[in-house]
Amino acid sequence: MSNTKNLFDKVWDLHSVKTLDSGQDQLLIGLHLIHEVTSPQAFEMLRDRGLKVLFPERTIATVDHIVPTENQARPFADLLAEEMMSAIEKNCIEFGVTLLDVNDSRQGIVHVVGPEQGLTQPGMTIVCGDSHTSTHGAFGSIALGIGTSQVAHVLATQTMALGRPKVRQVVVNGELGPGVTAKDVTLHIIRKLGVQGGVGYAYEYAGEVFDRMSMEERMTVCNMSIEGGARCGYINPDQTTVDYLKGRPFVPQGAAFDKAAEWWLNLASGPDAKFDDVVEFDAADIEPTVTWGITPAQSVGISENLAPISSYAPDEQTLIKEAFRYMELEENQPIKGQKIDVAFIGSCTNSRISDLREAAKVVEGRHVADHVRALVVPGSQLVRKQAIEEGLDKIFSDAGFEWREAGCSMCLAMNPDKLVGNELCASSSNRNFKGRQGSPTGRTLLMSPTMVAAAAINGCVTDVRELLTPATV
Amino acid sequence: MNEVEKITGTGIPLLLDDIDTDRIIPARFLRCVTFEGLGEHAFEDDRIQDPEHPFDKPEYQEASILVGGRNFGCGSSREHAPQSLIRWGIQAIIAESYAEIFFGNCTSLGVPAVCASRQTLEALDKAIKQNAKQEITVDLKTMKIACGDQQFDCTLPENARSALISGTYDFLAQLLKSTSEIKERAAEVPYFTSFA
Ligand code: SF4
Fold first, then answer.
1. Is the model's pTM score more than 0.90?
2. Ligand 1: distance of its center to the CA of A110 in Å?
3. Any idea which fold A7-162 has?
């Protein structure tokens, strides 16, 4: 049987309950992740209409956005944050939803927790009131960020109305150079295709580079699909996926696991699969990449200078000028050597154990520059525990990093971790929007966690490849 | 649910590209359990830095139609963004293009987010700046924007248009009708039944 269906279409068709009058599909949702910020109003909508959660066992809640990362004792010092915590606790009890609270050892950033617990599995439709839900696509699932009204829809019906996007295959073949990470691959793709390049599409990432990646690296790539405008991104399940999932708490065990694995592997797009569009990149062209502006597409390779305003299309120049003004950077300047004030390793893009291990290798035996405030915020309590077992916390602390509890932290600064004034932050997160890191004039340079580590050590944007050999003690 | 066919009101010009939802409503205002009160914080950080921000100008305080640029509403999925605009008074948005989650959120709240060409947006921007009292009409039946004696085309995906016009944009009622089909479908999905 020739199979021209790609994974996306197979999974979509399986979950489509019916076509609605609007032409959209009513899509069955396999896993609904919720957190404290975008769920309270949704539960309120259910209460208003006297509705229940249809499949409470298919919804899992955690808390991440507002939790402090210094002292997590309750009640929180921030009364608004405390009110939100109480709301999600009350809602989860009332509606019968499992909550991984701060006092649960499994708590963490929703997009770190889902995969870690094996909640995220190939072939699922996964939604969460959070745009970086695309992370879960790394397992070969359709994973979408949704708004609060849709959170209510999914709670009440386990379905939502959605138009089917087109599918673009983004192929990266070849070999990544030393020091070039999954983060650089995703920043490079966004740079080349633009922040709006993916609108209307789901992305299938394919090719040798993704085939070789670990699950954690794949998550980094899929995480930022949304930054390139795509509705979601995914990677076909393979043996790496199956090996990662085996034995995780929410994954089937024994004979059921074998059955599951077989089903997962069969979902992958075959060689005859059709796509609405295909774009290709060569891994050799990708350098450690750093954003310099106020959108994730405004980035350069570490060895490049910032392009002059005149090199941009006329209709882009206003935005580019505004980016230079806001970032206090100049055209033609190198990005390397730019002095930073803050270094942040964390967020659902890059706060997993492999991120911390790689960053620790750069940091070990070195010290954070005197003028830099540096912090490491593990993505989950389990990542934190693992890191401590491996002694990574000590490497970071000895080097002058603050070692924190799990949460979103300075990725969006809804908790006390914020930039001050116009501080410039080297950050392993995913958004460099104006004001994103908590100060209305704060400035963000996105880069890989190893690049953040290198910037923290040197006190300025640094080519991590210069620090890849261990420090001489 | 109200049918949304035609929105008439004065405009507010914000013809900038890549306005993200962090700018529309900064994250610190997401520390809340209701959407009430978000209106006054719309674009708060942009307004602090720009005393000339349209959302602060007296002449635009009654405006209900926002004129934006390309990729409006990109970034975070927070429904707080359209909710804050609605509570500020916005009933329709005209822009070159939108980020998809933002667009979906607007539609499900009954706010038409229509697309128009750059020329149209520039003409509207000019007309509003010349006369803040200028009435603008966005007509979803004809897909035309009227502004004084000028008329422009606009577009809206058909599914959003029909949902707004027929007043079925809050899909919950429709989704709820299919409970038995939902359960039947779930029974066919291997992982819903633990691969039994
Ligand atoms: S880490 Fe940042 S991007 Fe990820 S879920 Fe938290 S706030 Fe959102």
1. yes
2. 8
3. Aconitase; domain 3 (3.30.499)
